[in-house]
Write a structure and sequence with these properties.
The protein is built from nine helices and three strands. It has 207 residues and is mostly helical. It has a three-stranded antiparallel beta sheet with strand order 1-3-2. The chain is globular. The N terminus and C terminus are likely disordered.
Length: 207
């Protein structure tokens, strides 16, 4: 019965997410923007607790990078992945609001910020930038030429933030299991959530 109720809520919840994300993007840096971000994260958490793993992200590349980062990274954890997705979301937000600024159109992948905040935390992170329209040059530089595609950029912004919230759920579950003195790996938790729908809200409460 609860699954049926959840399915009926999804279209309305998705529209709420789209509207809340737009409000967040349009709000100037202020206390209000922080509040809009919190509202958006709550909507995304509700969404992620209702949908199967195959429907969590709009872009397949987001699911691909998240899975690679959790399952194949040398030091995999949702802590590291959350940092990377948060940074990508911020890049997308900056590009959307200030597309004329050169620092958002030419990104050196070996620069301190990109390397430490994104590349060292996410596997094949450049694929998400390609989804925004960037091209990867041989000299480890991401370049975006011409006008931006607002839909592409906002989709990446929202998807990266969704992945960030998913990582927060994974972290809460990990903390909850640790508090109960139950050992589990990040791979175990990720795999379980990938195979089961609707269990994260209750389990995450332990965190």
């Amino acid at each position: 019965m609860s699954e049926i109720v959840g399915c009926n809520l999804l279209p309305e919840l998705w529209q709420q997410i789209l509207q809340q994300h737009w409000t967040y993007l349009e709000t100037e840096e202020s206390l209000q923007k922080i509040e809009e971000r919190q509202k958006l994260e709550e909507c995304l958490k509700d969404f992620l607790c209702l949908v199967p793993h195959s429907r969590k992200f709009l872009l397949p590349v987001t699911a691909y990078v998240l899975q690679k980062s959790i399952l194949q990274a040398d030091d995999s954890s949702a802590y590291k992945a959350s940092i990377g997705f948060e940074s990508i979301s911020q890049y997308a937000n900056n590009l959307f609001t200030k597309p004329w600024r050169k620092e958002y159109r030419v990104i050196k992948m070996y620069s301190g910020f990109y390397y430490h905040e994104i590349q060292s935390n996410l596997v094949e992170s450049e694929k998400i930038f390609e989804a925004m329209g960037y091209k990867v040059l041989p000299n480890q530089t991401l370049v975006l030429e011409g006008p931006i595609c607002p839909d592409q950029v906002t989709n990446v912004s929202r998807d990266a933030l969704t992945a960030f919230v998913e990582c927060q759920i994974l972290k809460q579950i990990f903390s909850g299991l640790t508090a109960l003195q139950l050992s589990s790996s990040w791979i175990d938790i990720f795999t379980f959530r990938s195979m089961h729908t609707g269990i994260s809200r209750n389990v995450a409460m332990y965190g």
